[in-house]
Structures are given as structure tokens and as C-alpha cells.
TrEMBL record:
Matches recorded under Pfam families: SRP54 (PF00448), SRP54_N (PF02881)
Designated gene of the protein: ftsY
Gene3D superfamilies in the cross-refs: P-loop containing nucleotide triphosphate hydrolases, Signal recognition particle SRP54, nucleotide-binding domain
GO cellular component: cytoplasm; plasma membrane
Record-given protein name: Signal recognition particle receptor FtsY
Amino acid sequence: MFSFLRRKLFSAPPPPEATATPAAEAPAAIPQPASAPMAVVAAPVADATPARTSWLNKLKSGLARTGSSIAQVFTGTRIDDALYEELEAALLMADAGVGATQHLLDELRRRVKDTRCTDPAAVKALLMEVLTELLQPLEAPLQIGATQPTVMMVAGVNGAGKTTSIGKLTRHLAGMDCKVLLAAADTFRAAAREQLSVWADRNRVEIVSQEGGDPAAVCFDAVTAGKARGCDVVIADTAGRLATQLHLMEELRKIRRSLGRSMEGAPHEVILVVDGNTGQNALTQVKAFDEAIQLTGLVVTKLDGTAKGGVLAAIALWNRERVAQGKPVVPVYFIGVGEKLEDLQTFNAREFAQALLS
């Protein structure tokens, strides 16, 4: 379960508009005088709850194949060029990419030299520290409530787990008494609308849906309805697409512009859901979608399958390059290890490094 820190200001909502069709009766907003806007923060901090411990075990299991390959490098008794060569091969096989692998090796060599380390097990511990430090800029809380509503646009390729991730996030937000409205912007695929409608009904939240309509128009109507109904969060589920489908990527840009017209500053979050099993292709997707719609965060799913996990190191190095160019970090808000609600959890760099190298 996410850890939430929360301060909330409700204003009495005006009468609802006809654009939104409730999937279930929504709870009434409670007017409360307050001096600060609502702030719902999903904090990426480790905790010792049974749910988190169980989730970490799933993460370790999902990354076990990669972890064992890297761990075998440190079973010898000597620290020499052969060890570094084997480690380089293992990191590349883990989909860390050439750049991140070189960064990790260079930093590891420097620390081994500075500490005069002679024990392979201690070198592995140094690698864990190096990897943790590389990944730490990816840690960031998902903040909801600086504006009302907070408008979130979610994108991703087909099969990445986008709609399921939206459903899980919606459930946690609704569980914290946030009023959520979903926008089914995949208007031409009935199965997508039905899937989102199921999540809306299950979470007892409202949904704006339109068969065969313009996705940008649906998103515009959803934000308009969200403002009228006093919603805290509006989440737009866009159609899955490959980054090479230029006409569909242009549709995403149109949706983003439409959200901006519906509310100043919107969308406040532009989140890409990527499949952890796709390796370096995940980084390619991140770059392409960021160029098209300016991402603010990521959700990495399916790390319980054949995921190698090293791609997060490549994403972290890409973020370093962004910062050097004066651009903001695109953090990893959540990572997923299964289909259950509790299988989507906040990203923690040290936990991930430990799971990958255990």
C-alpha cells in the first residue's frame, strides 16, 4: 500500500454537467475551510509493513535471473581484469546499456582503488552503492493537489499495462478519499473503454467515455466535468501506440494541447507506462514519448516476469544527461511486479539495487 501524506481542501462543487456518466454513485465532497490546497503524496520511502516485504520478495524473485548472473561474477577470490570483464558482460545482459555499464564500471574501479578493497564480496557491496547512487535521482513522490483537479495524462505502447496501472492508482487514490474522474480517450477500441469502465465501477469513480469520438475532445470534456464536479484528480487513459506510429503520436500531442486548453497548466502529470521486459527498447520508448509529449514521470511494469531490470540504470543515465542540459528529471513513480492491487509500489533506489544484486 502506498504511503500517503495528505492535506485536503474541498470546495463545494457546482451542479454536475451532462458530459460525465457516473459508473457508480460518487461520494459527496465535504466543504472544509483550510488555508492550503490538497496535497496527496505517494512517497517513495521503504517501510517494513508485511505488504511491502511481500512485494520486495516478488521483486527479488522477478529479478532473480539477472541477479544470479551478476552474483556469479563475485564468487571468485581475485579482483582483476577478468572480474571486470565478466561484470561488464553481466550488466550488458541485464540491459543496462553500454553507457550505464561503463559508468558503473568506472565508478566501481575508482572506489575499489580508493578503498583498497581485496574481497570480491566487498566489491559487490560497492557496486550496490554505486548503482543505488545512480538510481536515486529517479526517486520522486507523485504529488496530487497543487491544483484542483490535478490532471494526469497516461500513455504507453500496447500491452505495457497502462490501463491496469491506471486502475491500481485510481484505487489507491479513491481509498484515500480523493475524488477521481477517468477519461477513456481510447475511443476507437471498445475493449479499452470496457476495461477502464470496469476499473471505474470497481473503484466507484466516474468515467467520461465516448464511442468513436475524438480522443482530444473526450479529454477536454473530462477536465471540464472534473472542474464542475469538484474532482481532485482527472486521469486520461490514451490509446496504446508504438513510437514509430507517427500519426498516433501526433494524436497524443493533440490530446496534450486539448488538456492545456481545458485548464491552465494541464496536464500537470504526463506519465509513460513501460514494460520492464522490453529492455533497451523501454529507453527508446521513453525518449520518443518524451520528445512528443514532455514526460513528467514513469511507471515500470511487469518486473515479475523475464525482466532484466538493468534498463533502469540506462534511464537513470539518460536523466543525468537531461539534467546536464538544464532539463528536469523524469522520475520513476511506481514499479509493478504483478496483477494484484498491492503489486504496484513506489520506486526506491536502494531496494531496487538490493533486489537486482541479491
